[in-house]
Amino acid sequence: MKILVALDGSDAAYNAMRSACRIAAKTGSYITAFYVNQGVEYSPEETAWTSIKERIARELETVGHEVIHKAYQFGKEFSVPVEGIISDGIPAPEILKYASVHGIIKLIVMGHSSKGRGAQEFVASTTRNIVEQSRVPVFVTGAEISISNILIAVDDSEVSKKVAGFGGSLAKSLGASIGIISFVPDTEAIIDEYRLIAEVPNIERHIEASEKTLAEIIERATTVATNILNSMDIRVSSIVKKVQSDEIISEMRDHDLLIMGIKSGPSQKKMSRIANKIINSHEISSIFVQ
Predict the structure, then answer these.
(1) What is the pLDDT of residues 144-174, one digit of tens each?
(2) Residue 144 CB neighbour total at 10 angstroms
(3) Where are the domains of the chain?
(4) Domain 2-141 falls in which CATH fold?
(5) pTM, whole model, 2 decimals?
(6) Which of 53, 31, 51 is nearest to 40 (CA)?
(7) DSSP H or E run through 217
(8) Which of 37, 57, 174, 183 has the fewest other C-beta atoms within 10 Å?
């Protein structure tokens, strides 16, 4: 397996690199350290001086070489093979293009991004764009972590089957335990519906029927994920059945890594509200699966 690690010189990105090295060491993978020189963004129109654009590009090129050199050092520290690539352009498109062309990339790793631009950080929109558009799982973290407890979040959608399969394979490779949290992604909409029909006759009966439906959805999602893991000869360490998606975050206190899908249905074009919330929190190490 080949892991692509996006580096920008930030502490978060280096922590992500160390985490990726830990995964690579246990899975027999090798790493491509990928740095994007964004000098192209500093156009003469923006800087007013062509010479400034050229100077910025040269300075960023120097930073890129320093970043890649540090990546090689991490590789030696963890005894993991590392290759370094410097590309020119906009980070998200360059990273996605490389991963698409090189089909052997099985995981993209990124540090939780800062919102500033001064040190050429990957801004939040870059991380979000890669998570939304990548065809391979994306690991986002701001900490150096050793993964021993994984939590997979599943709902009643097709992507959750991929979440269970990927989570099971990773847990098996790392010798990690794996737990399941089952949730309903659109409970907020259901609650709003309750409010709208609060004056409807026999509302209690309607609510009771809806709650039964939610329970059936959660049970179905749990059963599907459990069966997938059982077929991989993986014992599930814990099962939590929730309704509201926000409760996923509270369950992370006993786990190192969250794995979840970013689409909750075929009609959804963008990542779910909870996926956005997890990325924006900068606190939870997560792998997002398409």
Answers:
(1) 999 999 999 999 889 999 999 999 999 999 9
(2) 17
(3) 2-141, 149-289
(4) Rossmann fold (3.40.50)
(5) 0.84
(6) 53
(7) helix 203-231
(8) 57
